[in-house]
Amino acid sequence: RRLYFDTHALVCLLETNGFTTQQSEVIVSAFVKIMNTNLDMIYKDMVTKLQQEIALQQVMSHIAGVKKDMIILEKSEFSALRSENEKIKLELQQIKKQVVDEITKVRADNKLNLNLEKSRVKELHAQQDRALTQTDRKIDTEVADLKTMLESHKLDNIKYLAGSVFTCLTVALGFYRLWI
């Protein structure tokens, strides 16, 4: 195993900074052990190029198998989906026809109801117009009767007034004759 730094230069550096030779060598040997342990850990997780190529070939063959399965599944699923889609289209067309028939029926019922209501309203208006005309005739007749009665009472009052005036004149003339 190679070390990519100079251990003797590190020992010299530590000695120039106040460590003894023995302390410097112990520190460097501990440092080398730590690095070796770390490298062992790293090498355990690493694979060689040959192992990597074998794993890649296994993954590629597995992917090819999955791809074939997906193509087969896709074809079978696609045909199943296509037939299901056709069934749904037919059902939708039937439902659409039923909805159109129901809408036509509802429209016809509504037109019939509307025409019946119109005829009822017209009949009601005709009845109201007849009742109003009859009421107007009655009112006109009553007014005419009242006018006739008023005229007859006027004449009677004029007669009584004329009679009263003549009676008063007669009484006054009678008193006048008596006084004269």
From TrEMBL:
Q: Report the transmembrane regions from the record.
A: 160-179
What's an example Gene Ontology biological process for this entry? positive regulation of mitochondrial calcium ion concentration
Pfam families named among the record's database cross-references: CCDC90-like
Cell location: Mitochondrion membrane
- Which keywords does UniProt give here? Coiled coil, Membrane, Mitochondrion, Transmembrane, Transmembrane helix
* Keyword Membrane belongs to the record: yes
State if Ribonucleoprotein is listed as a keyword: no
Tell me which family the UniProt entry assigns to this protein.
Belongs to the CCDC90 family.
Q: What is this protein called?
A: MCUR1 regulator
> What taxonomic lineage is listed for the species of origin?
Eukaryota, Metazoa, Chordata, Craniata, Vertebrata
